[in-house]
Write a structure and sequence with these properties.
Number of domains: 3
Structural class: mainly alpha
Strand content: 5-15%
Low-confidence stretches: 1-12, 183-209
Shape: elongated
Order of helices and strands: HEHHEHEHHEHHHHHHEEH
Largest sheet: 2 strands, antiparallel
Oligomer: single chain
Radius of gyration: 28 Å
Mean pLDDT: 86
Distance between the termini: 84 Å
Number of strands: 6
Number of helices: 13
């Protein structure tokens, strides 16, 4: 009779749900800790009835290894179910998805929303290019190297680890796209200089002068601008080609997203561009300064990187929105002006119907 009672009691402890959770609890099992540590932490958190009984379950299942990590419990569960979760390594993670084209400021806000760290700390850590110096000696920050993707982190993961994970993901993707094979520049580029008064050519510039890029810094900077300019896959190589052609022709890039980034750097972007933004003397302002900005203005995805590494060579020097999510391209200033007028007329007509 006593044996029957003991068996029933043991079955009750092992098989029947236990735990009262007014709110979810997290239990962290450290690396290289024994089963007793896991048992006591689970018992202290109110997840299992008895640390001793949980330890007994582990001893009776010698082939079942408990895995370290953070576990989240929000509803009653039997001791067997709890143990099986630890055997599977069903750890709790915080998921964060970085969209293509997000810059450091966007990611910082997202990181804070997901409780992975403060936005200000993230911005401070990513302001240093130390993690990518070996990849890009010209890097001015980690902008461009925080690869857009979905990441899973355990609660309590340090911001430094979060950032290093994103940079490593970029390294993997750049290797897949063979971006690491490009030759570095012979010497760092000079500081941006005011844009020369270059008149737009009346005849198309043959874009063969826009030689393929030869260094990762250039590819990444162009890719970030391409990413911010269009979401249309077929347009990405075309827009990259326009940027390279304008560089070859000595024309300022006049890329609005670089002006927005310059405003964000001084915390003055209001959601719209104003005359003062176009006149800001920031080296990122490609209306004021010729050549490339000092570095990327966002974190491009694989498609934009591919487009920047393999631009489509055309005679185009200009593009403007077509009002439907895409762009119209032009080879001469006269043609560009006509396209701009078409866009403005369509915009006025749309507002008139609202």
């Amino acid at each position: 009779m006593l044996l029957l009672l003991l068996t029933g009691a043991t079955a009750y402890v092992w098989l029947f749900p236990f735990g009262r959770f007014p709110q979810p609890v997290l239990v962290r099992i450290p690396q290289h800790s024994g089963s007793w540590t896991a048992a006591t932490r689970l018992a202290e958190a109110g997840v299992v009835r008895s640390a001793g009984m949980f330890e007994a379950w582990v001893l009776l299942h010698p082939g079942q290894t408990l895995k370290a990590g953070t576990y989240r419990f929000s509803s009653p569960a039997s001791m067997r179910t709890v143990a099986q979760r630890l055997v599977r390594g069903d750890v709790y993670t915080v998921n964060i998805t970085i969209p293509e084209g997000f810059n450091r400021f966007d990611i910082a806000r997202l990181v804070e929303q997901q409780h992975l760290g403060s936005a200000s700390a993230f911005l401070q850590l990513t302001a240093s290019p130390a993690l990518v110096r070996r990849l890009d000696p010209q890097a001015v920050s980690l902008e461009g190297y925080l690869f857009p993707d979905t990441y899973k982190f355990e609660p309590g993961t340090s911001l430094q680890t979060v950032i290093e994970t994103m940079v490593r993901r970029f390294e993997v993707q750049s290797a897949r796209l063979h971006l690491n094979a490009v030759a570095p520049p012979q010497s760092p580029s000079a500081s941006p200089t005011p844009a020369p008064a270059v008149a737009a050519p009346d005849k198309p510039v043959i874009a063969s002068a826009a030689a393929p890029p030869r260094d990762l810094h250039t590819i990444l900077t162009i890719a970030s601008m391409v990413e911010k300019e269009t979401a249309v896959p077929a347009e990405r190589p075309l827009i990259a080609g326009v940027f390279y052609a304008r560089l070859a022709a000595g024309l300022p890039l006049q890329c609005d997203p670089t002006v927005i980034y310059a405003a964000e750097l001084v915390h003055s972007y209001t959601g719209e561009l104003h005359t003062v933004d176009l006149q800001r003397p920031s080296p990122y302002n490609t209306y004021v300064h010729a050549g490339l900005p000092p570095g990327p203005i966002a974190n491009p995805g694989a498609a934009a990187l591919q487009a920047a590494a393999h631009p489509r060579i055309t005679n185009y020097l200009y593009f403007v929105s077509n009002g439907h999510g895409g762009h119209r391209f032009a080879s001469t200033l006269e043609e560009q002006n006509r396209n701009v007028q078409r866009y403005l007329r369509a915009e006025r007509a749309q507002k008139a119907t609202q």
